[in-house]
Design goal:
The radius of gyration is 20 Å and the shape is globular. With 238 residues, it is mostly helical. It has one domain. The two termini are 26 Å apart. The longest helix has 30 residues. Helix 6 crosses helix 8 and helix 6 crosses helix 10.
């Protein structure tokens, strides 16, 4: 049979795109966890490569920065979340108490998601611009995971991954992009402030510079491609 790259066929297969995104995220997190565990056990445990701080303190610092950045990102994106109808859908009736409860729930989830950003994207950005781009990609991924997958499962017990459902949720995509950008920006500012203190010490400056991802890697091209597909496909197919 010939290849069918028509828009109609793409609409029929849009649901599998969400499944592939969930699979890719699970694969990436599992690979990163195993990779960092092996580094801690077999490389960084060597006395010559030993850190001045233990891995537990670094993880706690990443979680704390991520939670703070996530709360700020949740506050900035909350007006769009209310306007798009995602938060009223969670809280039910639009009473003052339910709106306040929805905002608290939104900030709690934002902090938890920000923690995952802190664990996954620390030392991944060499500039504020690249950090914001990582945040946009992070926000797009959580748009597919949140309103497209986890939220329908919690409310109805099933997911609707059709293009029509994605088109209905497109306003919340802007909120997730804002959340990802603000979370990444705040996290990177906290990370750079801490890194500046380490760079002043000759004993830690070389190690800290070695941790930062170089500028000339293909990572920006990859996340730009993934970001473009993740945003444009629901719009074009819808």
């Amino acid at each position: 049979m010939p290849l069918d790259w028509s828009a109609d066929h793409g609409r029929d297969l849009f649901g599998s795109l969400v499944g592939y995104i969930v699979y890719g995220l699970t694969l990436g997190v599992a690979y990163a966890t195993i990779d960092r565990l092996l580094l801690k056990l077999f490389v960084e445990s060597d006395p010559l490569n030993r850190e001045r701080e233990g891995p537990g303190l670094n993880i706690l610092r990443s979680l704390g920065w991520g939670a703070l950045a996530g709360i700020v990102g949740g506050l900035v994106s909350s007006p769009v979340m209310f306007a798009s109808g995602v938060l009223p859908q969670i809280t039910g009736l639009e009473t003052p108490f339910s709106i306040f409860r929805g905002l608290l729930l939104h900030l709690l989830v934002s902090a938890l998601i920000g923690m995952t950003f802190g664990l996954l994207f620390r030392h991944e950005s060499s500039s504020l611009g690249l950090g914001v781009m990582w945040g946009w990609l992070f926000g797009v991924i959580w748009w597919y995971l949140g309103p497209m997958t986890f939220l329908p499962l919690l409310l109805t017990g099933e997911t609707d991954r059709r293009v029509s459902a994605a088109s209905t949720l497109l306003p919340s995509l802007m909120a997730h992009l804002i959340y990802g950008a603000v979370t990444a920006l705040i996290f990177l500012l906290l990370e750079e402030r801490f890194a500046r203190e380490l760079l002043l010490n000759p004993r830690t400056s070389a190690r800290e510079l070695r941790r930062i991802r170089p500028v000339g890697t293909p990572a920006p091209a990859l996340w730009f491609f993934a970001l473009g597909l993740g945003v444009l496909l629901p719009i074009l197919l819808g």
